[in-house]
Structure formats: structure tokens, C-alpha cells
Amino acid sequence: MPASIELSPQDRQRFRDILNVLDLRQKDLVIEGSSYSLSWVSQMLSGARIDVDLDRLREMTEVLKARLDGGEREERVAKETAESAQAFLEGFLPGVTTRHSRPGMVMAPGDPDYVTRDFDEKLLATLDDFPSVAGVRGPVQSGKTSQLKMLESKALERGFETLWFDPDPSGLVSAGAMNWNEDASAAMVSELCAALQFAWKVPSPPVAITTPALLYQWLYGAMDTRNGRRRLLIIDDLGSLGPIAASRWLLALMLPVSRVRNELKLSVAFGMSFPYSRETPLLIEQSSHPMFAQLPGLSWLSARGAPRGSQHGAWLECLKDDGEVFQALGGQPYLTHAAVQDAQFRAAVQVWQANKTADSAKTLREHVCYKRHLRRIRHALVGPATPPDKCGDGIAAFSAPGKADGLSTRYLIDMFLVDQTGKYKAAIYCLMAEDLTAPTKAGAR
Length: 445
What we know:
The chain has 445 residues and is an alpha/beta fold. It is built from 21 helices and six strands. The chain has helices at residues 9-21, 38-46, 54-69, 71-74, 79-90, 118-128, 144-157, 180-200, 212-222, 243-259, 261-264, 280-287, 312-319, 324-329, 333-341, 343-354, 358-365, 368-382, 393-399, 406-414, 429-441, and strands at 4-6, 51-53, 133-137, 161-165, 231-235, 266-272. Helix 10 runs parallel beside helix 12 (280-287), helix 13 (312-319) crosses helix 15 (333-341) and helix 19 (393-399) crosses helix 21. The strands form two sheets. A four-stranded parallel beta sheet has the order 3-6-5-4, with helices on both faces. It has a two-stranded antiparallel sheet with strand order 1-2. The radius of gyration is 22 Å and the shape is globular. The protein has three domains: 4-90; 118-287, Rossmann fold (3-Layer(aba) Sandwich), CATH 3.40.50; 303-441, no CATH class.
């Protein structure tokens, strides 16, 4: 799914302040060719849009920064104000290595907060094995998109032509639709078809392309490989389509492409999270098909890969095995990054881990990073096609892992929610399990 971040109220107010300083209206940010709309800008600034698409935010930030840098504006903006605004805006732009990424943002190559993992070398080795089809599989907020961004960056350095595609149907298909999987898949197949035509000049298809099988047939017959260029298609995140549609993409697109990858001179890397479903065990098996590069699932963080930048000490504190933060968070990438960046959140985690009282739990639950990860967990356990008033078997299994059936237990283990003994992988998950089931018990759902 597209990388997104949750802006704080202070961030949104800062964007509004910069607009006021520059005497701009919201519609002035929507220029010709923008991927975002005026409605998107309005919702982002007001807070109506909680999760903000990172690529669109960066695109809008570039527009604001260009206005701020413009000569006609310099005379109207005090130097100190302009420098402060520029520093704020640059924190959202890609490729900035002197500033620390916010939790939930995609890590740029060379980012001072990038935690190395053994998986990095294994993924980069797929570039040497060109052409290949490789899957980056892992739990929610484990860094899959950052891994794929790293792969794209290294591929570009080596002269690859790359195409990044986010199969996120949320803006095109109603999540409550009965045929959500089919509609989502058809919409995204059509989007990818259009992207391939634009980026790689693949000739237009003679018929509408609405299924992964049709997309493969068209691509195999139409893509020009005579120029000898090495190409890399990156698809992130197939799991956002739901298990049924994701399975079709794997079997009808990824697998056939892997069989003719030498003819197409094409590598594919795909991200895959796994929403809770009875079909998920099969989907996990399909995503690691022998025809694909044999990569392990993406795991959590350890002190061995701690960044050696200015926050090295904070990273070590949060990743040492016997530390309160690691005991509470278990090295979960998003939450650990949040603990490193936010001293108040880190302190709340430490206090709760040392003394699990109602007050310490309440303080911890009030932090925005806790709430955001909770929403991600719920989305994975319930799925986008489940009505919001339903709890679902996934949440029931998560709330009582010791009573879950075999398939549910396997899912919870694979998604790093519980360990092999049925114990929560991160102690903080016991709080989240309570939060996910509390509304149902109270009759609110």
C-alpha cells in the first residue's frame, strides 16, 4: 500500500502557518499535473485525513518550498521565518540524510535512522541475479516499503529502469462493497496497465485489461525488449488488495512473469502483508513459490543493526535485550523508531513496562504512535472488506491466542503477533488486544 504518515496537529498547523506567511490559498498548491486534489489538501490541513499519503505530501511540499524559494516571496518573508519554514519542509522531502525520519515515513537510502538487517543483503542480491521475481513479506509496519525503496535506489544506481506501483484501491473502491476483491483488483490492474504504457512506452492493449491474466498476456506480447534495458517493476503492497485478489495476482501475473523473465528482461519485486483470512496460509505459501527468489520473511529489529548516527545511544537503549523498551516493544520497527524519536513515548513505555498500572497504561495509550499501530493491527486482523461494526475472528484470536485454532495461531506467529509458545511477541500487544475487544464487550459495535 502507499507509504503514509500520521501528521501531528502541530505539523498541520505549521503547514497552515506557512500558507499564511506566503499569502497562499489552498487551491494555489494544486498545480497542473498534481497527483493530489484540492479536497486532499483541505483534508490534510484540517486533520480530516488522518493517514497522509507520503508521496503526495512530498509533492505538495515541493510546491510550497518552490514558492518559499521564489524571489517574489523573499521580500515578503523575514529571513528567520523563511529559514525556519524551509527546515520544516525539508524534513518531509526524500533524500534528506541530515535530518531524522519520522516514524512511519519511508526510510531514504543513507537515512541516519535506518536499521540494517540481514535481509538487506539478501534482497540486494536479487539485482545480481537479474532477472528475478522477489517478495518482501512481513508484518504490518515492519519496513517492507523502506526495503523496496532501498532496492529501487540501488537498481537506479546500477542503470535499471524502474517503475513503482502502489496497488491501493481505497480511493477507487468502497471497502464495504460485496465484491470488494474483484473491484479492487480490476481497478488496480487497469492502473498498472496505464502506468506501464506511460513509463515504459508499452503499446496500448487492444482490449480493456482488468485481470492479472490479461495484464500478463498483454505485457508478454507487447513489451519491447530489443534495447536490452534492464527493468525492475516494484509493486507495494499486494496484501492491500485482500487475500483473494492478492492470490490471483501472484498466480496469474507474478508466477507467469517469473517463467519468462529472461525473455522479458524484467525483474519484479513485490511487497506483501497478510490480512487475516482463512485463505492467508495458502497466500503465504504462494508468495514464497519456488519460482521466486527465496527470501525469508522480514523480521523485527535487533541491536546489531542499530544506526551509528547521533541517536545511536537511543537506538541501543531501545534495542538492548534486557531493556524495558525492548521488553515492551520487542524490536517492532515502527514502535521502536517512535520510542527513539519521542522521549515522552519512550518514557511512557518504560514506566508501563516497569509498573503495569491503569494510570501507566492510560498514559501509553494516549500517544499517537500507539494509536496508529493499533489501527494498523486492527486493519490486518479485520480486513478492509469487513464492516466497521464487526469484530471478526482475527481479533478474537488475537485477544485470546491460547484459545485460537491452528490456522489462527499460525497466522499470529507468522505476523509476529505471538511467539511459538502463544505469548505476545511484544508486551504492548496485551494492551492492544484489550483495546480491540473492549468496544465489542461494551456493546458499542
